[in-house]
Amino acid sequence: MELTIPVNPFRTHGGVKAPHRKHTAQSPSVVMPPPQQVVIPMSMHIGAPCTPLVKVGAEVLVGQKIGEGKGFVSAPIHASVSGKVKAVGKVTLGTGQSVDAITIESDGQMTISPDVHPPEIHSKEDFLNAVKESGLVGLGGAGFPTHVKHASKDALDTLIINGAECEPYLTSDNREALEEGEHILDGIFAVMHWLGIQRTIIGIEGNKPQAIQHLKDLIAKDSRSNGKVGVLTLKARYPQGAEKVLIKAATDRVVPMGKLPSSVGCVVMNITSVGFLGRYLESGMPLISKRITVDGSAITNPQNVIAPIGSKISDLVAFCGGYKGEPKKILYGGPMMGNASFTDDSPILKQTNGILALNEKESRLPRSTACIHCGACLTVCPMNLMPSMFEKYTEFKKVDELRDIAVLNCIECGCCSYTCPAKRPLVQAIRIGKSMVRKADAEAKAKAEAKKEN
Known about the structure:
30% of the residues lie in helices and 19% in strands. It has 454 residues and is of the alpha/beta class. Strand 10, helix 5 (209-221) and strand 11 (229-234) form a beta-alpha-beta unit. It starts with 29 loop residues before the first strand and ends with a helix.
């Protein structure tokens, strides 16, 4: 089958017209000085957490590996500042999760470790090992280790770069496209070469015309492209950046329930992830910093900040001029899929792409009333699911029914809750329902294994 770059996106189902509020789209990224202290969690990815490699009192340097992942689905963690290890132990993140973490007192020097050097790559195995050692995980929010995604045994023909950035407020990926275009292409061509992929489609929403044109101009001038890389202008409709939705829009392929994108020949990378990869292959500096959109009605000077991983939310807010009034809610990420933090002492993570601080008016939740059975949630669901039934079956603990109507296929985008005229807490119910199904499946599996052993 001949592969072509689509000119227009294929039709997708559902979605909502969420307000964009891209206040910082024209704000060039600003590098924040190292804070006095960073707290680096040993779990910043899907999969097994890392084991600390340093002890209290040890001197560490920028880029030095301080956490090693022992499981295949894991990614190493590196020091984001130079200084002395102050503590190694449990910390509670702003989301309530308790994890191991390494606290480093910065010396302000940002001295680079001698271990930092460009990787030597002569084979696909070398490439996968380099990606693993870089500490790269999905930087769009999911945090899935990239080397695991690239090690798929499925035949891959299409690399899809996710530059949609459809969440309100967030503009960090837009700035990546405008500021790191050459490195984005370097990362793309490296992935295509070592994974044997024939084409790349960069998907960007149409409300980012500067980024679209900039990347098109760079591609046109790059002799490596040869018609195999193109930019697809997506409709500005949330959630265009959801992985399965993006695959459908870019290729018209549908990822089956419970399957990965590789099952339909695709691998999806966030645009910041592939930009980082291009930089890493050039410099050898692992993932130690992130560009983060700091915005919201309680922020004095919203902007895009490049900060060391492990910096506290309060450090970023202070760098942006502090709060203009008391924040009533602080979010990691955007308002549609972000997670609330109960404190601004919590650190930013590898997958943090935004910090929002909202005032009382902007964070106030509407009062929920009884479902009126209008079907609006079904209309907007990008996965063609039945959110109202998920809520009902969760309430009555009907696990088999939840499984039968594919609750695990929900991507938790929030379109259903956003559009519901009764303001039902649908996403919250769905999360509970999914946990019920997973728990039941795990118990059934354990019983089956025990029976087999006996």
